[in-house]
Description:
α4 crosses α5. Helix content is 30%, strand content 18%. It is α/β, with parallel strands linked by helices and 249 residues long. The protein has a single domain (14-62, 100-240), classed as Phosphatidylinositol (PI) phosphodiesterase (TIM Barrel, Alpha-Beta Barrel), CATH 3.20.20.190. 48% of the residues are buried.
Amino acid sequence: MISVSFDDWPYPTHIAHRGAGKLAPENTLAAIRLGASHAYSMFEFDVKLSGDGVLLLMHDATLERTTDGCGRVAGHSFAQIAQLDAGSWHSAAYAGESVPTLAQVARWLIANRALANIEIKPCPGREAETGAAVALEALHCWREASVPPLLSSFSEPALRAARQAAPDLPRALLLAELHDDWLARCRALDCVALDASARVLNEAVIDAAHRAGLRVLTYTVNDARQARRLFGWGLDGLITDAVDAIRPA
Ligand code: G3P
Ligand code: MG
């Protein structure tokens, strides 16, 4: 597996958000397949632990919005979550789509030569446990891959635990706001990248990050003109829902 650094940056400029944005049920294999059909080769998705410690793809800490179940993800075993319909909420075409595990998605991505941005999205109170579990599972699932998944999180405790479990896996700190300490926070976690909301990113921050040896990603940009402006500022990676409208370079 290559070691990711500023100079050895293996990731493409365009990353599909939650698989295929809003065109398919988020964080499912169907979404990732759809994103790939639009020529995307890297996928951002959200990962958390079930009650019994299985890593699965889901954004919310509760089941209601994206499945026909209810209650906390952490209050259910993976066997229970695997029975749920994670597609009907989106549209009838996806009825019966299931919640995938990280291991299932890793298999699909590696087999299809696609890359991963795993957003560690812990359920409240499970930050370090989830960060360590994601890092160890990523090491195992990607053990024969040449390019490792990029781990990212808004949770600094999760990224710290990921670093402890798998120091060589690349990390990006997600920030919704940029305060004076953004660089120090990235450095404290030995991140290879800053992953900032497009609402707060600007050219000066991208320049400062590059001078500090960090790549810069941004989320979630669905407007082609805004995407062009960001790339003009030197952006390295754009996370988008608009896989049908924004063509990967
Ligand atoms: O990883 C970037 C982006 O996914 C962060 O926000 O809420 O869509 O997971 P969210
Ligand atoms: Mg996410």
